[in-house]
Amino acid sequence: MDRFVEQELLPAYTRGEKRRYNGAYHAAQTLAYYHRRRGHHEQARALYKAAQAMPSYDTHDPEYRRLRYIRYADDFLLGFAGPRQEAEEIKLRLTEFLHEHLKLELLEDKTVITHARTHAARFLGYEVHVYQCDSKRAHGRRSINGRIGLRVPHDVITEACQRYMKGGKPARRPELINDDDFTIIRHYQSTYRGLVNYYRMAYNLRSVDRLRWVMEQSLTKTVAQKHKLRTSKKVYERYSTHIDTEVGPRKVLQVAVQRPGKRPHTATWGGISLRWDPTVPLPDDRPKPTFKRAELLQRLLADTCALCGSHDRVQVHHIKHLRTLEKAGHGSHPLWVVRMVERRRKWLPVCHRCHVDIHAGVPKPVRQAARQREAGEPDDGKPSRPVRRGADGKVPFIGREGTDAP
Description:
This protein has helices at about 1-10, 25-35, 40-50, 85-100, 155-160, 180-200, 210-225, 235-240, 295-300, 335-345, 350-360, 365-375; strands at about 65-70, 75-80, 120-125, 125-130, 135-140, 140, 150, 165, 170, 240-245, 250-260, 260-270, 315-320, 345-350. The protein is of the alpha+beta class. The longest helix is centred in the first third of the chain and has 18 residues, at about 85-100. The radius of gyration is 33 Å and the shape is elongated.
Protein backbone atom coordinates (compact mmCIF):
# COMPACT_ATOMS: atom_id res chain seq x y z
CA MET A 1 0.00 0.00 0.00
CA ASP A 2 2.81 2.40 0.87
CA ARG A 3 4.45 1.78 -2.51
CA PHE A 4 1.18 2.37 -4.36
CA VAL A 5 0.50 5.65 -2.59
CA GLU A 6 4.06 6.95 -2.92
CA GLN A 7 4.57 5.89 -6.54
CA GLU A 8 1.06 6.33 -7.97
CA LEU A 9 -1.13 8.69 -5.95
CA LEU A 10 1.38 11.25 -4.68
CA PRO A 11 2.87 12.10 -8.11
CA ALA A 12 -0.59 12.19 -9.73
CA TYR A 13 -2.10 14.61 -7.19
CA THR A 14 0.87 16.85 -6.43
CA ARG A 15 1.68 19.77 -8.74
CA GLY A 16 2.60 23.44 -8.65
CA GLU A 17 5.20 25.17 -6.48
CA LYS A 18 2.81 27.49 -4.63
CA ARG A 19 -0.66 28.96 -4.94
CA ARG A 20 -1.17 32.09 -6.99
CA TYR A 21 -2.03 35.35 -5.27
CA ASN A 22 -5.63 36.24 -4.56
CA GLY A 23 -6.39 39.27 -6.78
CA ALA A 24 -9.31 40.50 -4.65
CA TYR A 25 -7.19 40.50 -1.49
CA HIS A 26 -4.34 42.46 -2.99
CA ALA A 27 -6.75 44.90 -4.68
CA ALA A 28 -8.37 45.64 -1.30
CA GLN A 29 -4.97 46.10 0.33
CA THR A 30 -3.82 48.48 -2.41
CA LEU A 31 -7.00 50.55 -2.24
CA ALA A 32 -6.78 50.75 1.57
CA TYR A 33 -3.22 52.00 1.30
CA TYR A 34 -4.36 54.63 -1.23
CA HIS A 35 -7.09 56.00 1.10
CA ARG A 36 -4.79 55.97 4.11
CA ARG A 37 -2.19 58.08 2.28
CA ARG A 38 -4.88 60.64 1.51
CA GLY A 39 -6.20 60.79 5.04
CA HIS A 40 -9.40 58.78 4.48
CA HIS A 41 -8.84 56.66 7.57
CA GLU A 42 -12.40 55.38 7.95
CA GLN A 43 -12.46 54.01 4.40
CA ALA A 44 -8.94 52.57 4.76
CA ARG A 45 -9.88 50.83 8.01
CA ALA A 46 -12.99 49.28 6.41
CA LEU A 47 -10.95 48.03 3.42
CA TYR A 48 -8.27 46.54 5.68
CA LYS A 49 -10.95 44.77 7.69
CA ALA A 50 -12.52 43.37 4.52
CA ALA A 51 -9.12 42.18 3.29
CA GLN A 52 -8.50 40.30 6.55
CA ALA A 53 -11.58 38.17 5.85
CA MET A 54 -10.05 37.02 2.53
CA PRO A 55 -7.24 34.52 1.96
CA SER A 56 -4.08 36.08 0.58
CA TYR A 57 -3.67 33.18 -1.87
CA ASP A 58 -6.16 31.61 -4.25
CA THR A 59 -7.46 28.51 -2.47
CA HIS A 60 -9.09 27.30 -5.72
CA ASP A 61 -5.97 27.51 -7.87
CA PRO A 62 -6.40 24.73 -10.50
CA GLU A 63 -2.62 24.51 -11.00
CA TYR A 64 -1.88 23.73 -7.36
CA ARG A 65 -2.44 20.36 -5.65
CA ARG A 66 -0.89 18.74 -2.62
CA LEU A 67 -1.29 15.21 -1.24
CA ARG A 68 0.28 14.05 2.01
CA TYR A 69 0.25 10.52 3.41
CA ILE A 70 0.94 9.04 6.84
CA ARG A 71 0.30 5.52 8.14
CA TYR A 72 0.60 3.78 11.49
CA ALA A 73 -0.11 0.03 11.42
CA ASP A 74 -3.54 -0.32 9.78
CA ASP A 75 -4.54 3.34 10.32
CA PHE A 76 -3.64 5.89 7.67
CA LEU A 77 -4.42 9.52 6.93
CA LEU A 78 -4.35 11.34 3.60
CA GLY A 79 -4.21 15.13 3.56
CA PHE A 80 -5.28 16.64 0.24
CA ALA A 81 -5.37 20.26 -0.90
CA GLY A 82 -7.83 20.25 -3.77
CA PRO A 83 -11.51 19.88 -4.73
CA ARG A 84 -13.73 17.24 -3.18
CA GLN A 85 -14.28 15.55 -6.55
CA GLU A 86 -10.60 14.66 -6.79
CA ALA A 87 -10.65 13.50 -3.15
CA GLU A 88 -13.41 11.07 -4.10
CA GLU A 89 -11.24 9.80 -6.97
CA ILE A 90 -8.33 9.17 -4.61
CA LYS A 91 -10.57 7.21 -2.28
CA LEU A 92 -11.95 5.14 -5.18
CA ARG A 93 -8.49 4.31 -6.54
CA LEU A 94 -7.28 3.31 -3.09
CA THR A 95 -10.34 1.13 -2.52
CA GLU A 96 -9.83 -0.68 -5.84
CA PHE A 97 -6.14 -1.27 -5.13
CA LEU A 98 -6.80 -2.76 -1.69
CA HIS A 99 -9.56 -4.99 -3.03
CA GLU A 100 -7.69 -6.27 -6.11
CA HIS A 101 -4.14 -6.59 -4.81
CA LEU A 102 -4.38 -7.04 -1.03
CA LYS A 103 -7.89 -8.53 -0.77
CA LEU A 104 -8.83 -5.94 1.83
CA GLU A 105 -11.90 -3.77 2.22
CA LEU A 106 -12.14 -0.22 3.56
CA LEU A 107 -14.62 0.37 6.34
CA GLU A 108 -17.08 2.93 5.00
CA ASP A 109 -18.00 4.25 8.44
CA LYS A 110 -14.35 5.01 9.25
CA THR A 111 -13.04 5.99 5.82
CA VAL A 112 -14.61 9.42 5.41
CA ILE A 113 -13.72 12.63 3.61
CA THR A 114 -13.62 15.58 6.01
CA HIS A 115 -13.19 19.29 5.36
CA ALA A 116 -10.36 20.10 7.75
CA ARG A 117 -11.32 23.78 8.28
CA THR A 118 -14.88 23.12 9.41
CA HIS A 119 -14.52 19.62 10.90
CA ALA A 120 -11.79 17.39 12.30
CA ALA A 121 -10.47 13.98 11.30
CA ARG A 122 -9.73 11.34 13.95
CA PHE A 123 -6.30 9.75 13.76
CA LEU A 124 -4.60 7.77 16.54
CA GLY A 125 -6.84 9.32 19.16
CA TYR A 126 -6.19 12.93 18.07
CA GLU A 127 -8.47 15.32 16.26
CA VAL A 128 -6.60 16.68 13.22
CA HIS A 129 -7.83 19.90 11.64
CA VAL A 130 -6.63 23.10 9.96
CA TYR A 131 -6.32 26.34 11.92
CA GLN A 132 -8.55 29.24 10.90
CA CYS A 133 -8.26 32.34 13.09
CA ASP A 134 -7.96 35.78 11.51
CA SER A 135 -7.34 37.45 14.88
CA LYS A 136 -4.17 35.49 15.66
CA ARG A 137 -1.38 37.69 14.32
CA ALA A 138 2.41 37.85 14.43
CA HIS A 139 4.59 40.56 12.85
CA GLY A 140 1.46 42.26 11.53
CA ARG A 141 0.24 39.20 9.62
CA ARG A 142 -2.14 36.34 10.22
CA SER A 143 0.13 33.63 11.55
CA ILE A 144 -1.69 30.30 11.94
CA ASN A 145 -4.25 30.07 9.14
CA GLY A 146 -3.74 26.95 7.06
CA ARG A 147 -1.52 25.19 9.59
CA ILE A 148 -2.29 21.74 10.97
CA GLY A 149 -3.54 21.57 14.56
CA LEU A 150 -3.91 18.63 16.94
CA ARG A 151 -6.35 18.61 19.83
CA VAL A 152 -7.73 16.26 22.47
CA PRO A 153 -11.23 15.04 21.55
CA HIS A 154 -13.87 16.10 24.05
CA ASP A 155 -15.33 12.59 24.22
CA VAL A 156 -11.93 11.17 25.25
CA ILE A 157 -11.89 13.37 28.36
CA THR A 158 -15.54 12.63 29.11
CA GLU A 159 -15.02 8.87 28.80
CA ALA A 160 -11.91 8.98 30.99
CA CYS A 161 -13.81 10.92 33.67
CA GLN A 162 -16.66 8.41 33.68
CA ARG A 163 -14.35 5.68 34.98
CA TYR A 164 -13.94 7.66 38.19
CA MET A 165 -17.52 8.92 38.55
CA LYS A 166 -20.84 7.56 39.72
CA GLY A 167 -24.11 9.41 39.50
CA GLY A 168 -22.38 12.37 37.88
CA LYS A 169 -19.96 12.87 40.79
CA PRO A 170 -16.42 11.64 41.52
CA ALA A 171 -16.59 8.31 43.33
CA ARG A 172 -14.20 6.00 45.18
CA ARG A 173 -12.72 2.86 43.61
CA PRO A 174 -13.70 -0.09 45.84
CA GLU A 175 -11.44 -2.50 43.90
CA LEU A 176 -8.39 -0.58 45.18
CA ILE A 177 -9.33 -0.58 48.86
CA ASN A 178 -7.18 -3.63 49.68
CA ASP A 179 -4.04 -2.02 48.21
CA ASP A 180 -1.68 0.09 50.28
CA ASP A 181 -1.61 3.88 49.94
CA PHE A 182 1.64 3.76 47.96
CA THR A 183 0.11 1.52 45.28
CA ILE A 184 -3.16 3.47 45.11
CA ILE A 185 -1.47 6.82 44.55
CA ARG A 186 1.02 5.33 42.08
CA HIS A 187 -1.87 3.77 40.13
CA TYR A 188 -3.74 7.06 39.80
CA GLN A 189 -0.58 9.00 38.92
CA SER A 190 0.63 6.58 36.26
CA THR A 191 -2.79 6.52 34.59
CA TYR A 192 -3.03 10.30 34.51
CA ARG A 193 0.58 10.79 33.41
CA GLY A 194 0.16 8.33 30.54
CA LEU A 195 -2.82 10.21 29.11
CA VAL A 196 -1.17 13.63 29.51
CA ASN A 197 2.06 12.51 27.85
CA TYR A 198 0.18 10.94 24.95
CA TYR A 199 -1.70 14.18 24.22
CA ARG A 200 1.28 16.46 24.87
CA MET A 201 1.15 17.72 21.24
CA ALA A 202 -2.51 18.83 21.56
CA TYR A 203 -2.90 22.61 21.83
CA ASN A 204 -5.96 22.21 24.08
CA LEU A 205 -4.10 20.02 26.57
CA ARG A 206 -5.27 22.20 29.45
CA SER A 207 -8.78 20.80 29.00
CA VAL A 208 -7.42 17.61 30.62
CA ASP A 209 -7.44 19.53 33.92
CA ARG A 210 -11.07 18.47 34.27
CA LEU A 211 -9.89 14.84 34.39
CA ARG A 212 -7.20 15.74 36.93
CA TRP A 213 -9.82 17.17 39.29
CA VAL A 214 -12.12 14.16 38.95
CA MET A 215 -9.29 11.68 39.52
CA GLU A 216 -8.01 13.61 42.54
CA GLN A 217 -11.45 13.59 44.16
CA SER A 218 -11.78 9.87 43.46
CA LEU A 219 -8.31 9.23 44.88
CA THR A 220 -8.96 11.04 48.14
CA LYS A 221 -12.32 9.31 48.58
CA THR A 222 -10.71 5.92 47.98
CA VAL A 223 -7.97 6.52 50.55
CA ALA A 224 -10.50 7.97 52.98
CA GLN A 225 -12.65 4.86 52.75
CA LYS A 226 -9.62 2.61 53.19
CA HIS A 227 -8.66 4.30 56.47
CA LYS A 228 -12.29 4.93 57.47
CA LEU A 229 -11.84 8.69 57.48
CA ARG A 230 -14.99 10.77 57.53
CA THR A 231 -13.96 13.31 54.90
CA SER A 232 -11.42 13.67 52.13
CA LYS A 233 -10.00 16.67 53.97
CA LYS A 234 -8.31 14.25 56.36
CA VAL A 235 -6.44 12.73 53.42
CA TYR A 236 -5.10 16.15 52.40
CA GLU A 237 -4.01 16.82 55.97
CA ARG A 238 -2.13 13.52 56.08
CA TYR A 239 -0.44 13.45 52.65
CA SER A 240 -0.42 17.02 51.30
CA THR A 241 3.01 18.57 50.64
CA HIS A 242 4.86 20.84 48.20
CA ILE A 243 7.47 19.80 45.65
CA ASP A 244 9.57 21.63 43.08
CA THR A 245 8.70 20.93 39.43
CA GLU A 246 9.89 22.24 36.07
CA VAL A 247 7.15 24.89 36.23
CA GLY A 248 7.71 25.88 39.84
CA PRO A 249 6.50 24.62 43.24
CA ARG A 250 3.30 22.60 43.22
CA LYS A 251 1.03 21.20 45.93
CA VAL A 252 0.76 17.42 45.69
CA LEU A 253 -0.26 14.31 47.61
CA GLN A 254 2.72 12.17 48.50
CA VAL A 255 3.32 8.90 50.34
CA ALA A 256 6.84 8.10 51.53
CA VAL A 257 7.85 4.55 52.46
CA GLN A 258 10.88 4.67 54.72
CA ARG A 259 13.73 2.17 54.33
CA PRO A 260 16.49 1.83 56.91
CA GLY A 261 19.76 3.13 55.52
CA LYS A 262 18.27 3.98 52.12
CA ARG A 263 16.31 6.75 50.46
CA PRO A 264 12.55 6.40 50.95
CA HIS A 265 10.34 5.31 48.10
CA THR A 266 7.75 7.95 47.25
CA ALA A 267 4.49 7.88 45.32
CA THR A 268 3.22 11.30 44.25
CA TRP A 269 -0.10 12.49 42.90
CA GLY A 270 0.00 15.76 40.96
CA GLY A 271 2.79 18.03 39.81
CA ILE A 272 2.35 17.18 36.10
CA SER A 273 2.49 20.18 33.79
CA LEU A 274 -0.19 20.71 31.13
CA ARG A 275 1.99 22.85 28.89
CA TRP A 276 1.52 22.36 25.16
CA ASP A 277 4.67 21.06 23.46
CA PRO A 278 4.19 20.48 19.70
CA THR A 279 7.86 19.53 19.31
CA VAL A 280 7.94 16.87 22.01
CA PRO A 281 10.29 14.09 20.85
CA LEU A 282 8.79 10.72 20.09
CA PRO A 283 11.12 7.91 21.26
CA ASP A 284 11.59 5.57 18.31
CA ASP A 285 14.28 3.43 19.93
CA ARG A 286 13.13 -0.01 20.91
CA PRO A 287 13.32 -0.54 24.67
CA LYS A 288 16.08 -2.80 25.84
CA PRO A 289 14.81 -6.13 27.18
CA THR A 290 14.85 -6.47 30.92
CA PHE A 291 14.95 -9.66 32.89
CA LYS A 292 13.77 -8.31 36.20
CA ARG A 293 10.95 -10.43 37.56
CA ALA A 294 9.35 -7.81 39.73
CA GLU A 295 8.17 -4.24 39.44
CA LEU A 296 7.21 -1.36 41.67
CA LEU A 297 6.51 -2.08 45.31
CA GLN A 298 6.55 -5.88 45.13
CA ARG A 299 10.34 -5.88 44.66
CA LEU A 300 11.08 -2.74 46.62
CA LEU A 301 9.26 -3.72 49.79
CA ALA A 302 8.74 -7.47 49.47
CA ASP A 303 10.36 -8.43 52.78
CA THR A 304 7.38 -10.09 54.45
CA CYS A 305 5.53 -13.19 53.35
CA ALA A 306 1.84 -12.43 52.72
CA LEU A 307 0.89 -15.97 53.84
CA CYS A 308 2.88 -16.75 56.98
CA GLY A 309 4.62 -13.47 57.86
CA SER A 310 8.13 -14.91 57.52
CA HIS A 311 11.10 -12.75 56.43
CA ASP A 312 13.16 -15.64 55.09
CA ARG A 313 14.18 -15.20 51.42
CA VAL A 314 11.02 -13.38 50.43
CA GLN A 315 10.24 -13.80 46.72
CA VAL A 316 7.42 -12.78 44.40
CA HIS A 317 4.98 -15.32 42.98
CA HIS A 318 3.52 -14.34 39.60
CA ILE A 319 0.65 -15.60 37.51
CA LYS A 320 -0.06 -14.77 33.87
CA HIS A 321 -3.78 -13.98 34.13
CA LEU A 322 -6.15 -13.45 37.03
CA ARG A 323 -8.65 -15.76 35.36
CA THR A 324 -6.28 -18.68 35.98
CA LEU A 325 -7.02 -18.38 39.69
CA GLU A 326 -10.36 -20.10 39.08
CA LYS A 327 -8.46 -23.23 38.08
CA ALA A 328 -6.03 -23.14 41.00
CA GLY A 329 -6.43 -25.61 43.82
CA HIS A 330 -8.92 -28.42 44.29
CA GLY A 331 -12.22 -27.81 46.01
CA SER A 332 -11.77 -24.78 48.22
CA HIS A 333 -9.16 -22.29 47.04
CA PRO A 334 -5.77 -22.24 48.81
CA LEU A 335 -4.83 -19.28 50.94
CA TRP A 336 -2.50 -17.77 48.30
CA VAL A 337 -5.39 -17.68 45.80
CA VAL A 338 -7.60 -15.92 48.35
CA ARG A 339 -4.90 -13.34 48.98
CA MET A 340 -4.41 -12.58 45.27
CA VAL A 341 -8.14 -12.28 44.69
CA GLU A 342 -8.44 -9.84 47.60
CA ARG A 343 -5.57 -7.73 46.26
CA ARG A 344 -6.64 -8.12 42.62
CA ARG A 345 -2.98 -8.42 41.67
CA LYS A 346 -1.08 -10.95 39.58
CA TRP A 347 1.79 -11.09 42.07
CA LEU A 348 2.16 -11.98 45.73
CA PRO A 349 5.21 -11.66 48.03
CA VAL A 350 5.88 -15.02 49.71
CA CYS A 351 8.79 -16.63 51.51
CA HIS A 352 10.83 -19.36 49.89
CA ARG A 353 9.06 -22.28 51.55
CA CYS A 354 5.58 -20.96 50.77
CA HIS A 355 6.70 -20.37 47.17
CA VAL A 356 7.80 -23.99 46.89
CA ASP A 357 4.50 -25.14 48.39
CA ILE A 358 2.51 -23.08 45.87
CA HIS A 359 4.29 -24.66 42.91
CA ALA A 360 3.99 -28.09 44.50
CA GLY A 361 0.25 -27.63 44.89
CA VAL A 362 0.30 -27.99 48.69
CA PRO A 363 -2.67 -26.23 50.35
CA LYS A 364 -1.44 -23.51 52.68
CA PRO A 365 -3.27 -24.55 55.87
CA VAL A 366 -1.85 -28.10 55.70
CA ARG A 367 1.69 -26.99 54.98
CA GLN A 368 1.57 -24.28 57.64
CA ALA A 369 0.49 -26.83 60.23
CA ALA A 370 3.39 -29.08 59.26
CA ARG A 371 5.79 -26.14 59.52
CA GLN A 372 4.55 -25.33 63.00
CA ARG A 373 5.32 -28.92 64.00
CA GLU A 374 8.82 -28.56 62.57
CA ALA A 375 9.89 -25.14 63.80
CA GLY A 376 7.00 -23.39 65.53
CA GLU A 377 5.56 -20.06 64.48
CA PRO A 378 7.61 -18.08 61.92
CA ASP A 379 8.23 -15.15 64.23
CA ASP A 380 8.37 -16.84 67.61
CA GLY A 381 12.15 -16.51 67.77
CA LYS A 382 12.80 -20.29 67.97
CA PRO A 383 15.82 -21.28 65.92
CA SER A 384 15.44 -24.22 63.57
CA ARG A 385 17.51 -26.04 61.00
CA PRO A 386 16.37 -26.93 57.49
CA VAL A 387 15.00 -30.46 57.54
CA ARG A 388 15.52 -32.76 54.59
CA ARG A 389 12.19 -34.09 53.47
CA GLY A 390 11.47 -37.76 53.07
CA ALA A 391 14.53 -38.99 54.98
CA ASP A 392 14.22 -41.78 57.48
CA GLY A 393 13.28 -40.55 60.88
CA LYS A 394 12.60 -37.07 59.63
CA VAL A 395 9.46 -35.16 58.83
CA PRO A 396 7.35 -37.17 56.36
CA PHE A 397 6.79 -35.89 52.85
CA ILE A 398 3.44 -34.12 52.45
CA GLY A 399 1.68 -34.74 49.13
CA ARG A 400 -0.50 -32.56 46.97
CA GLU A 401 -3.67 -32.99 49.00
CA GLY A 402 -2.01 -32.93 52.38
CA THR A 403 -1.59 -36.76 52.40
CA ASP A 404 1.63 -38.60 53.11
CA ALA A 405 3.56 -39.99 50.19
CA PRO A 406 3.01 -43.71 49.66
